[in-house]
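Problem 3 from the worked examples.
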Amino acid sequence: MRQPKLLTTLQSYSKASFLADLQAGSTVAMVAIPLSLAIAIASGADPATGLFTAIIGGFFISLLGGSRVQIGGPTGAFIVVVYGVIAEHGFDGLVLATFMAGLLLIIGGYFRAGSLIAFVPEAVVNGFTIGIGIIIGTSQLKDFLGLTAENVPAELIDKLEVLWEARDTLNLSALAIAFATLVLIILLRRLAPRFPGLIVAVAVGSLLVGLFALPVDTVGSRFGALPSALPVPALPEVSWARIVELFPSAVVIAFLAGVESLLSALVADRMIEGHHRPNAELTAQGVANIASALFGGLPATGAIARTATNIRAGGQTPVAGIVHALVILAVLMLAAPLAGYLAMPALAALLVLTAWNMSEPHKWREYASAPMEDRLLLLLTLVLTVLVDLTVAIGVGVSIGLALRLRARKNVESDWTPPDR
């Protein structure tokens, strides 16, 4: 079934539902703003593209999606892929790859491919998620420590060597701001889990930089002023050679968007005791990525952490996600200059914590006690993700996982234990 959940929920919509969605959508927007900026920066893109993605992608994922409470936008899982595509093909290449990925997702929704998540071994997803977390965490060390290093390579080993050579440039002010932001985020999450503590913690860290005139980079000093409006939609430059060149990247983006959105929907179902429509979700992801590409944004998908925040804040229907997108748009139009004061170490601290949460350390004991085949598959995917390439990791992991299933002659059924990332 590909009918959007919005049409179903509006049949019994009430004023009380709207007020609940309004509060939840506004709350999750305050969480999404600093995350979207940080994800865009870590991806090697202009910070404004993160906000464009949250607005456009978030709007269409809620408008057309198959989950009552899904929140869409840029996510940490895409950082590695986006960074690599931009480095190799430029931002225009990323836009075209995202556009193509959107088309692939729409095709997947049309042919009811939503159930194919059952074929992806959980060990593979856990392995490349932990690997992505490691890559994201190490990519933030430069700003977290305030190091001065030019042309930091993307490869993990080479990156660590360059950062180690730059250890004498450690900026204690940057480290203090990053550490203070990290501690404040953790405290606010524990003391007031429904409160949008992310934006408060990042704002406090950035305010300290301004008050004490600390020698710390900010979004404005590094990237300039953010725009105060959405860009005019434009089609990416298309040629047959470019399509062939970018097709592998488009497949990876579509795969990640599909898997993460369906994972997020499964988590939401568990939290609200609901049932999402996977094929409607894939179709929505496709439209959202096409629209995000037209507005010069990043790949979009369902965001597990923001979806959980929406539920805890009282979100009841897709209207909350639409409100979330509109609130971010209002902030962009009315308060974009304020984003220029956000401190880079504060945003780095936010992403370091995001990377830690992505790796789900509370589940490591469970992974260690899994069957030997699952442990080896997880480790193989993790190592390939970190040291080789995400595309290779996914291809090898899924292939070996399916071969193991066929060898065991099991019925292919979902073995998911929905993660809480």
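Problem 4, a separate protein:
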Amino acid sequence: MRLVDSKVTNFATGCNSNFQGGTALREIGIGVLGGGYMGKAHSVAMAAVGAVFATTLRPRLEMICASRPETAEQYRQQYGFGRATDDWRKLVHDDAVEAIIIATPQQTHRQIAEAAFAAGKPVFCEKPLGASLADSRAMVAAALASGQPNMVGFNYIRTPASQFARQLIADGVIGDVTMFRGEHTEDFYADPDAPASWRTDGTANGTMGDLAPHMINGALALIGPIKSVMAEVETVHASRPGGAVTNDDHAQMMVRFDSGAMGQMYFSRIATGRKMGYAYEVTGTRGAIRFDQEDQNSLWLYRSEGDEATRGFTRILTGPAHPDYQAFCQGPGHGTGYQDQIIIEARDFLQAIETGKPVWPTFRDGLEVAQVVHAALESSEQRRWVDVGDI
């Protein structure tokens, strides 16, 4: 990591001031594998995180990798990287690349992560952790053996509203949790005439590999470990123009948490009309919480107190009083967006690197999600309850 000049001129006073109270800033070379949807999001986040959160570690966009030289060069120019390559090994083993972000297809995650850890570099990996449960376990083993910081990309639980919901539940504001209902529903494959593509091939690209991990992660974060599951997983449109569909369209799960709370979850890529249906309801003995990502800057809270005639759900608009909001905007109700969630992830990853201490969610947390997904698939196939601990 390189030291950079932390002195800036205050044009209002003509005096010198330092970021972080005079703490020397350090550059860290970032390598991003994949320049598509999530590759772009992480590149933008790393370019912005220093300004948003005044981090001591300042990312330097060192190298980006894509499948073709011309595409890699396009991403380099568009996102502001110093160099580009179509060889992931070259990026991973480059001395100037000090931290790795994996935003490539799931089947490549394990090989890249294992190589990065062997090279002694921190790794941030997009979800799902591996293309299979075996891959996820191998990636956790590699992370633990290396001792390097590691994180998995579950961004939706990082909205200020969901962070606040997690805080309210942990503080006992709604009492003991008795029931959780969650969904991750979208309609990008609701049209049966939409053509087959990479999304319709392979378990990791189905709804259980693509959408379900986000809400399962959310349930684990809000309520705690899941003890057992009963699931049904279906492919509604078994064929599409261009080929057969080899993965699932939607799924439903009943769960029992370690705490004793009951739960229900539904996941779908064919939920007509739903665009970003990451939503949950949490019922407790003294209150309840509701959230919907399509209105991500609102949280609905019910408290069982006061006159019955005036009780009801209260809409809370997020603002500077809520976690991680003020870094983006000083005005309550103005709101944060999807890209801001990725910037929060970038801050957390840099914190893990700087302190050497794990920051949630680590690879081990990603494995916990993978185990629940695997239990659900096994439950659907065998038509029975499955204990996650037996996976």
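Solution to problem 4. The radius of gyration is 22 Å. The mean pLDDT is 94.
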